[in-house]
Amino acid sequence: MNLLKRAVLLLLFACTLQMAGAQGKYQWKEATSGGYSYKYIDNDPMKARFYTLKNGLTVILSVNKKEPRIQTLIGTRAGSDNDPKDHTGLAHYLEHLLFKGTQQYGSLNWAKEKPYIDQIDNLYDRYNKTTDPAARKSVYHTIDSISGIAARYAIANEYDKLMTGMGAQGTNAHTWVEETIYEEDIPSNAIDKYLAVQAERFRDPVFRLFHTELEAVYEEKNRGLDNDNRKVYEAMLAALFPTHNYGQQSTIGTVEHLKNPNLKAIRAFYNEYYVPNNMAVVMAGDFDPDYVIRTIDKQFSYMKAKPVKEYKPAPEAPIKAPVIKEVLGPDAESIDMGFRMPGALDTRSNIILGVLSSILHNGKAGLLDLNINKQQKALSADASVLSLKDYSILALSGKAKQGQTLEEVKALLLGQLEILKKGAFDESLVKAIVNNAKLAELQGLESNNNRATSMMDGFIKSRGQNWAYDVAYVDDMGKVTKQQIVDYANKYLNDNYALIYKRKGEDKNIQKVEKPNITPVEVNRDAQSAFLQKISEMPATPVKPQWLDYEKDIQTAPVGNTNIMYVQNKDNGLFRLYYRFDMGSWNNKELALAAQYLQFLSTDKYTSEEISKEFYNIACNFSVSAANENTTIMISGLQENFDKAVSLFEHIIANCKPNEEALAALKGRIQKARADSKLNKAAIMKGVVNYAMYGAKNPFNNQMSQAELEAITPGELTTLLHDLPAYKHTIIYYGPEPLASVAADVKRLHPLPAAFKEAPAAVKFTKDDQTKNQVLFADYDMVQTEVNWLRNSDTYNPANTGIVTLFNAYFGGGMGSIVFQTIRESKALAYSTYAFYVTPDKKGERYSTVAYVGSQADKMGDAVKGMNELLNDIPRSDKLLATAKESMKQDIETERITNDGIIFSYLAAQKLGLNTDIRKEVYASIDKMNFDEVKKFHDEYLANKPYTYCILASEKKVNMDDLKKMGEVKKLSMEEIFGY
Predict the structure, then answer these.
(1) Domain limits of the chain?
(2) From start to end of 330-471, where are the E strands?
(3) Averaged over 235-256, what is the pLDDT?
(4) pLDDT for 973
């Protein structure tokens, strides 16, 4: 799980405030249904039920019948805060091990496996206490030998096979400071199977296949050392929390502790914190809550409650002067500023902080939005809140534009705080914030994942006790006054911040986790336990797939000389209106620049700042995006403001005025962003893969040259924007209004020409032929080495859709796949690895084979060899193939394409030359497919073929002579990759 992504997640439902709203409209009530009592909150839009079972297990349920699937989370209130001081990273290790099975599954013969597991436990205990290097090496050699014997009795990834077989998606888990959460998205007919597996999973987990999983965690740590953003995040926490475990204990652990694991310590952690009174089962989706709570109670009643020692730190001393740190690395420079604030349990503080944060930055009309981003005074600036139980963090960040220092960006950020503290902002902004929060709340209710995550967040922070305030959040935001915000800002936002300068340079303090000598272990991919057989035989009510009938599911009506495509929103009062043009950046490279430019332009009636405020005030948005072959304008928001939003946008596009100063600033920011992209390893690798796929001229580097960028004038761009509606486009509407009414409104609000202009001819990109092995190399200062394999294949054939889908699922598309089992589970060569046969999105285009391994530099040779063996010879596993086929069935049976997704599904099908829902044909083909067909496909399109190896690594850590053994080596410059 990406901890950074989790770290910046701020859920509206998770914000709390003890105000009058929670005591009036939103009150706790009790009810009984199906023999079980539960609590709920009046007027809760999620209608969440809170149960506490006899053993203390919390169960939180929210029914949503939108699709026949359920988002499930099982969480424990223990994370890296609870790690022993001498075993940091332990909670995260345990998370990984809870995928390894129990005595009942994951083992061919537990009686024979157990003695070796016990030996390994004792050996790691000895290894942990041994300091002499030679003695440690000897102990590890013994661990490796015994682990190889133990693995003969293990069934790798049987948990993943269990979940895949029942149609689960998104199998994952994450550990953070206060929590460890296990995640599954299951079909609604798999409740019994899911709960039976989870009850067994937590009953008595076996820590098998530990030393290969240990290597996966080492790789995860090394990936973090290559991630400048993660280093900044950890530096910020350390600066803000000199005594609290937030800042003193890295979730993934220190290098020293990672190299000295102790299985007995991990078991002790499990026994202490994985108890029912410290855990919750959360489910959101399509189910009968009475049946679900009865089944959970039956399955988890074996768990016994016991006292749990909570982490209760001493209060942090106040920060009396700025704490300034530097982080060095190859990525672009930035600045991050953090203020330590009261935690989520301080409900009054939390709501004021939430509103204050939105006043600073809301993407439209905040102080940073209008005074820095809109005026292009920096490359970018934003603010966010990280809400944790004991403390929260108000974070401000920024990037410098060309010729600007980070110190100057710091001054800009602090300047906005001074404006806030003086109250120099419009109090009406609070009302707009509330309106936009209502919009976000409605959008959030559509997602089972949002529901489940919100409910689990409430459990982790307050055991759900603050749910009344969580539900009242949007209402209570409106009760916050300007004076409260000003007083709060003056109390908490002074010289009491941590400041992290991310500067470009070599980080000489990086200490990577060294590669241990690991002998590949057995994965027994054909084996299955009696438990898996029992689960697969459990009855499940069939779910009937639903196919789209485009002629019936999409309504159309003429509007001028084009058509409107329509699907009605029957769930809420939100609308989305699109103008979809049949031209993109391949027709005109200036389109993308014009789309960016528009946000900085004024009209004869409004300044650009006033435009942002107007849209934010009515809780609506607009965007203009130029893709390769299409340009899309989207206007969205509350239907009650449809006329205002559409009219305002039409006014802007027709009347925007050239602004020389804004364009000059935009060009400067683009040049700085381009320079920054050349420092970003993900962007570099994307460019290398595009080079491999298309050659020197490719979609990635199809950019305006420096000369073209400098030559473009404000008038040219505004003319392009004014003319855009005159080009051919389709209108798409998803919202609550009837078609006839919408068509009349659009005709009234959206002027159309008598005849559309002809779009400029599009540039064509043709995929290259790989006639011999080749290496494309890009140098980057990093710990790891990343390798992508690329080969272009035949042109698109819809008849191959079924076999392509099955092949991907079986071969390299998940944790239970051949590639993952071999590269990671057996050989411990990578944390992340995959292989796909990629389907093009357009008729006449070619498929591509793409494979990936990210490994330590000194394991690159082994990793390349391992992937090549799989690309040339596909192992047979009838059990895995059967699981992949069953998963395909379940995915199609429970998939519901809804809302405007129906229209975009049709447009995607049309692009492939299809007029019907191809899933119907794929579904009918599943039972007929067998391993012989999969192998024939593999042999025909992947095996013994030349590939282009795309390698991103540090020249200091790889041997160029080794690369030459793979094929002819071409080192790409940044100019060749990016086109500028």
Answers:
(1) 550-658+713-749, 774-978
(2) 334-342, 380-387, 391-399
(3) 94
(4) 97
Select the CATH number that applies to the domain covering 774-978 from these four: 3.30.830.10, 3.40.50.620, 3.40.50.1370, 3.90.550.10. 3.30.830.10
The alpha carbon torsion through 895, 899, 904, 906 (nearest 10 deg) reads 70
264: pLDDT strictly greater than 80: yes
Residues in the chain: 980
Tokens found for residue 656: 């925007």
For 605-659, write each residue's pLDDT tens digit: 999 999 999 999 999 999 999 999 999 999 999 999 999 999 999 999 999 999 9
Name the pairing type of β-strands 28-33 and 69-76: unpaired
C-alpha neighbours within 13 Å on the C-beta side of residue 895? 17
As given in the structure block, the two tokens for residue 560 are 């001028």
Task: Report how far residue 127's alpha carbon sits from residue 262's, in angstroms, rounded to the nearest whole number.
Answer: 8
The closest of 59, 174, 36 to 456, measured between CA atoms, is 59
Tokens of 883: 């699981």
pLDDT at 255: 84
In angstroms, what CA-CA distances link 237 with 41, 242, 407, 446, 532? 35, 8, 21, 33, 43
- Is the pLDDT score of 98 beyond 90? yes
Alpha-carbon span 806 to 474, nearest angstrom: 45
% the chain with pLDDT above 70: 97
Residue 746: phi and psi, rounded to 5, are: -65, -40
> Which alpha helices (DSSP H) does 618-680 contain, by range?
642-655, 660-677
What is the three-class DSSP state of 172?
Answer: strand
Task: Write the DSSP symbol of residue 288.
Answer: -
Report d(CA 600, CA 673) in Å as an integer: 17
Q: Looking at the domain that runs over 550-658+713-749, which CATH code has it been given?
A: 3.30.830.10
- The answer to whether 343 touches 308, Cβ cutoff 8 Å, is no
Q: Computed from CA positions of residues 107, 110, 116, 118, in that sequence, does the dihedral angle turn out positive or negative? A: positive
Q: Residue 515 has what pLDDT?
A: 64
The two tokens of residue 447 are: 């997602």
Give me the residues paired with residue 848 across strands.
792, 838
Judge whether 680 and 331 are in contact, CB under 8 Å: yes
Q: What angle do helix axes 448-462 and 428-445 make, rounded to 10 degrees?
A: 110
Average pLDDT over all residues of the chain: 94
